[in-house]
Design goal:
Layout (H helix, E strand, L loop, with lengths): L3 E4 L3 H7 L2 E3 L4 E3 L2 E2 L12 E4 L4 E7 L10 E8 L19 E3 L9 H6 L3 E6 L1 E5 L10 E5 L17 E3 L3 E3 L4 E12 L2 E12 L10 E3 L5 H8 L6 H6 L8 E4 L23 H24 L8
Parallel strand pairs: 4-7, 7-15, 8-15
Antiparallel strand pairs: 1-5, 1-10, 2-3, 6-7, 6-9, 9-14, 10-11, 11-17, 12-13, 14-15, 15-16
Length: about 300
């Protein structure tokens, strides 16, 4: 499964890192960023992204006019809103942040979306998974990400040395590209783009941690096939999705267990020695937040006394 991700890059950095080869020009193109209102919800870089947050998603430009390249980046909300839902989108009561690959073709929600070309790629620096093979009172989270060059540390952006060149493309931190499905939901004047992450049985690399994993697209060929909704039919596209073996991971603080905690230490590697120190800092942070909320409530004027 996949219930929390991380992405700290801004819009322009994401356009660079998502650059792709233009075979006709023998150079790299950056996908255009197409803004979407999404009921006022915007993409905000975060080290702890949770369902209902808005994140950048790669889609084919074939359904959009006046786009020069073949790919676009579009902000979408995590968790597909069922097309039949009416009224407040927050009350659809379905858990749609993940969709199981085994059930897509029989699902009355996901199968029509797949057949209608709703394939997308969710871009993340990494995702969090909680160990389920050990029975603990508090589940231990891990941060999972693409293997990096020797000098690059995923939890230290000062080591990334990011660079983009039209001739050679992106050089720097490597991201994960996760296959997903997206849908456009509308009710009166509210229009929201939303997506679900496709999951599958874990590979031998991660089965010790969790029995499910997201469908990660490792190669450019996989990305091209998944996005090419005009020439690659749904069955063929699904055949490109395989459990990923080449991954890296490290243990992180249980602070990420709370989706409200967005600090840049969420993805930091943590050892047994510094667990106590980290937990003390996190407890202090939440105490300050709670005190501030309490003070805000105390300062609200009493209408009866006016």
């Amino acid at each position: 499964m996949c219930g929390r991700t991380g992405l700290s890059l801004n819009k322009e950095q994401l356009r660079c890192v998502c650059s792709y080869k233009n075979k006709k020009k023998d150079s790299f193109d950056k996908p255009e960023w197409l803004h979407e209102h999404n009921d006022g919800k915007e993409y905000e870089p975060s080290y702890n992204i949770a369902p209902t947050d808005v994140t950048p998603v790669l889609v084919s430009s074939s359904n959009y006019k006046n786009i020069a390249g073949s790919r676009i980046l579009k902000p979408m909300m995590w968790g597909i809103i069922p097309p039949w839902h009416k009224g407040n989108y927050r009350t659809n009561n379905l858990s749609t942040n993940n969709c199981r690959i085994e059930n897509i073709k029989t699902s009355k929600l996901y199968n029509p979306i797949l057949l209608n070309g709703g394939r997308c790629i969710i871009v993340v620096e990494g995702y969090y998974e909680w160990q389920t093979t050990v029975k603990n009172k508090v589940k231990q989270p891990f941060y999972i990400y693409a293997p990096q060059e020797e000098h690059i540390k995923i939890d230290d952006s000062s080591t990334w040395q990011n660079n983009y060149d039209k001739k050679s493309g992106w050089k720097g931190v490597k991201l994960l590209y996760i296959a997903g499905l997206y849908n456009i939901w509308q009710d009166n004047d509210v229009i929201i783009y939303s997506y679900s992450i496709i999951t599958m049985d874990s590979s031998s690399t991660l089965e010790w941690l969790h029995h499910r994993m997201p469908a990660i697209l490792e190669t450019e060929l996989q990305k091209e096939a998944w996005l090419d909704i005009e020439n690659v039919n749904p069955d063929m596209a699904l055949s490109y999705l395989k459990p990923t073996v080449l991954l890296s991971w490290h243990q992180v603080s249980t602070a990420v267990n709370n989706s409200r905690y967005k600090s840049n230490d969420c993805n930091k590697r943590i050892s047994k020695e510094n667990k106590k120190c980290a937990q003390s800092t996190i407890t202090s942070w939440f105490t300050k937040v709670d005190k501030r909320k309490s003070n805000d409530k105390d300062n609200i004027p009493n209408k009866k006394n006016k």
